[in-house]
Amino acid sequence: MKIKDRLEFANKAPPYALRGEEKVSAAIESMAERNIGSVVIVDYDMKVQGIVTERDLVRRLLREKLDPDTTPLTKIMTTNPRTAQEDDDVVEQLSLMSNERFRHLPIVDESGRLTNILSQGDFVAYTWPELLVLVRKKAKETLRPNTYTLVAILFYTLIVIAMSSIWQDFTFK
């Protein structure tokens, strides 16, 4: 299924983005207020230049003991982040995020302009209902043929136990 075909995608709030010259403190404040884990860094045409995530704050800002009030976002951002387009497959993008170990995926148009952002949490929420349906279907497909086998084994076991009990009664009398 394409990203744009998900109902949840259409209802998402616009992505939060800042220019690279903004200070890290502004991003931290906004991330905390909005309860989000990343800020996309864009130029004046809304083209993605980078992304600042909670991980970047820990790895670059805190570890290097930088001052958030004077440090520009360009100094700590991840440059050239992976992006996707609305026509891309949801599951393929989730797999890519999992394999390459990143949690935030900017969505861009054909010109590279930011249109949205999805997190791994979004993808899980989008794919979870479908995954449950698939699991139930597979369970039914797998259990039906095996149910008859299990019932047959159980029935056979009961017969063996019953015959064994009867046989013991005959042999000890």
From TrEMBL:
Start and end residues of each CBS domain: 10-68, 77-133
Name recorded for this polypeptide: CBS domain-containing protein
InterPro entries: CBS_dom (IPR000644), CBS_dom_sf (IPR046342), Diverse_CBS-Domain (IPR051257)
Annotated transmembrane regions: 147-167
UniProt keyword list: CBS domain, Membrane, Transmembrane, Transmembrane helix
